[in-house]
Amino acid sequence: MLSEDDLHYLRRACALARHGLGDVSPNPPVGAVLVRGGEIVGEGWHRGAGLAHAEVEALAAAGGQARGATAYVSLEPCNHQGRTGPCTRELAERGVARVVFGVRDPNARAAGGAEYLRSAGIEATDAQMREARRLIEAFAVAAATDRPYVALKMATAVNGAIAARGGMRRWLTGEEARALVRSLRIEHDAVMVGAGTVRVDDPQLTVRPAHARRVPYRRIVVCEREPIPLDRRVLRRESNVETVILAPRGRAETFRALEPLARVVYADDERGRLDLGAALRALKAMGIRSVLCEGGPTLAAGLLARGLVDRLHWLIAPVVIAGAGAASSVGGDEELDFGGWHFDEVRALGADAYLSGRLQTEDGCSRD
Amino acid sequence: MLSEDDLHYLRRACALARHGLGDVSPNPPVGAVLVRGGEIVGEGWHRGAGLAHAEVEALAAAGGQARGATAYVSLEPCNHQGRTGPCTRELAERGVARVVFGVRDPNARAAGGAEYLRSAGIEATDAQMREARRLIEAFAVAAATDRPYVALKMATAVNGAIAARGGMRRWLTGEEARALVRSLRIEHDAVMVGAGTVRVDDPQLTVRPAHARRVPYRRIVVCEREPIPLDRRVLRRESNVETVILAPRGRAETFRALEPLARVVYADDERGRLDLGAALRALKAMGIRSVLCEGGPTLAAGLLARGLVDRLHWLIAPVVIAGAGAASSVGGDEELDFGGWHFDEVRALGADAYLSGRLQTEDGCSRD
Questions:
Q1: What letter would DSSP give residue A20?
Q2: B30-49 burial code (b ≥16 CB/10 A, e <16)
């Protein structure tokens, strides 16, 4: 049984883990708290691949006070020798008496931590905490499939329309919603848009404010047919940012001019057309494990229709838009009637509403 | 200054007021609680036009214990002689020491209650409570304009689309959302839909479960051009329910056949076309002070474009719909880009999301 205190420290571990978002890929973010006699004696979080794990950081901070302490870790301590040693052994050797972790490690190679700890006489409890599971959602999807985790962010009017006046879509949502989108970009390995969005909106798609990422940021543009114009802002050089163009090989000639400005990756089906599944697999092969897709309507519909979206981030502005100036947020060509979504977050965000959800999954997570 | 106790009893008064919803039109719902020495000594609510006001009910329940008590009333006590006497005088005569009310009376004829009470030596405080203001929202709009209060309820996919497969729109939202819609119907004097919705969905539009309303319920169908078929369920006789057809006089001949089955009201502009403003004015003249519009897309767009919607009730199902089977929730012909909305409720409702808001207004209401 977990006490209120246990849940409090686990939440603290999750909050620490969040500091690593944007830096730790391909690893998951992890935070750890060591508590002895009702006091925190050490804290830590994983700062990047090849660097110390969260538990090791917390143990270092605790020094001799680790003996007899309870370790709260957002993720089950790893049980394998990777670039760093297994955390389970570290915890045991330093005399930690009890380990409470937020969610089991979905990575088969690293799993088995709880069993090792128990065999070493340490009480190990899986808290099955929703917040902890949410933290490794992208990691878990990327570990289980041959493509990156894909989150789709949309910002629409109440009736789902987006404005497309004068060739330039205007911001519908307020500052809080835009701040959320900035955080989402930081949390993902890459941002992705369709070529239409680059043509119409000419977004820069950088991570602002400047985030000293350990992992370079990727801007991805999906070009179904035509390349984007060479003067687009997404093609401007930015330090620590790479631009990737996904294109159909059947039209490779027309994409040659983009090659000095961006990394052009061809991904197509047997008929030479762009294939979204192949495109995502190519991204995973490049080390991209999570993608935030920010539209537009055609790309959103294509991903949704193929079941390639793992989570929706839907921002709704208190606006109704209809008529000639309106466009649909999800392209109308794809036949789509998909009810497998499950909202796990519905709340006001400034003047806007924020709905987030993922494909309905069976899971054992219940605590919040 | 109001204490936590004051707010607690005011919320209780608001909860009592809610019992009157659906019965009290054209009056506002009002609830009252009398408290002496930290104990509730009387409660009451207004049950219908011509019946006792909430304060009088509460005073009757309190008997001699009203003397020295504090009266919590969801609405400023009335100060005029209508079908019942002024509540302010009753409160003073029975020795009430203090009155706290949730919101001022927007009806000029009944207002001035606070001033009367103060002149009689009774402390009177306007709590400016959002919940109390929300209770009389429809009443206040109907009192201030020449048309009924109009609330627009929509149920859509996340991307704003509605399904229209095989000529029959299917329910997108779940049981909790449908229960909310039933409550909304009960709270309004009438439900309204466009002719297209009657043709496609053939809804019954009754108030279920059977609600013994003091005020007859009206089902309103807006026919821009053609009458609805005579076999529609909305034309079936229901006890205590009246069906009203709004039609353009220019096409009166084609509506003759409906006259034995429904009340046909002609409302048109100078060119003989249906005019939504004139239609709403006609409804107000019939004693309808609040209308719940449940679509469809054309009627919704028409009302929104003319600024005739006071509140949105937007239900969003965890579904994405696009392609040939999808329709827009707000008709695409009306040019509409209206950002004057303010969400005051955003929450999960079962598996769905519920967004509610009204046109942004300047008001002094701050407390909840």
A1: T
A2: bbbbbbbeeebbbbbbbbee
Contacts of B31 (CB under 8 A, 6+ apart): B12, B13, B14, B15, B16, B17, B18, B19, B20, B43, B44, B45, B46, B54, B73, B74
User: How far apart are the C-alpha atoms of B89 and B110, rounded to whole Å?
Assistant: 13
CA angle B93, B23, B189 (to 5 degrees): 130
Which of B234, B239, B238 minimizes the C-alpha distance to B258?
Answer: B234
Q: Which residues contact B196 (CB under 8 A, 6 or more apart)?
A: B296, B297, B298, B299
**pLDDT on residue A211:** 59
Cα–Cα dist B292/B349, whole Å: 19
What's the predicted TM-score (pTM) here? 0.90
Residue A196: Cβ within 10 Å count:
21
Closest chain B CA to residue A304: B320
- % pLDDT > 90, chain B: 73
> Which helix or strand (DSSP H or E) is residue A155 part of?
strand A149-156
> In the A/B pair of chains, how many CB contacts fall below 8 A?
154
* Confidence grade of residue A12 (pLDDT, cut at 50, 70, 90): very high
Q: Does the ipTM exceed 0.90?
A: no
pLDDT over 70 for what percent of chain B? 94
Task: Compute the Cα dihedral for B242, B246, B252, B257 and give only its sign.
Answer: negative
CB contact under 8 A, B323 and A317: no
Asked whether the beta carbons of A313 and A152 are under 8 A apart, the reply is yes
What are A353's strand-pairing partners? A316, A348
pLDDT in tens, B281-329: 999 999 999 999 998 899 999 999 999 999 999 999 999 988 877 888 8
- Edge to edge, what strands does the sheet with A98-101 contain? A39-45, A31-36, A70-73, A98-101, A123-126
Rounded Cα distance between A101 and A76, Å, is 5
- Nearest residue of A to residue B302, measured between CA atoms: A322
Highest mean pLDDT range out of A5-9, A169-173, A328-332? A5-9
- Report all structural domains of chain A as residue ranges with CATH numbers, in order of start: 4-138 (3.40.140.10), 145-359 (3.40.430.10)
How far apart, in whole angstroms, are the C-alpha atoms of residue A115 and residue A104?
11
So what's the pLDDT on residue A367? Answer: 32
Mean pLDDT, residues B332-354: 87
Spatial distance between the Cα atoms of A217 and A204, rounded to a whole number of angstroms: 13
Q: Which residues of B have a catalytic role annotated?
A: 55
Contact between residue B279 and residue B246 where contact means Cβ atoms under 8 Å apart: yes
Marked catalytic residue, from A55, A57, A90, A131: A55
**C-alpha closest to that of B19 among B223, B222, B239, B183:** B183
Reported confidence tier of residue B110, pLDDT bands at 50, 70, 90? confident
Q: Distances from the Cα of A206 to the Cαs of A15, A181, A186, A189, in angstroms?
A: 25, 11, 9, 12
> Which of A325, A332, A353 has its CB closest to that of B355?
A353
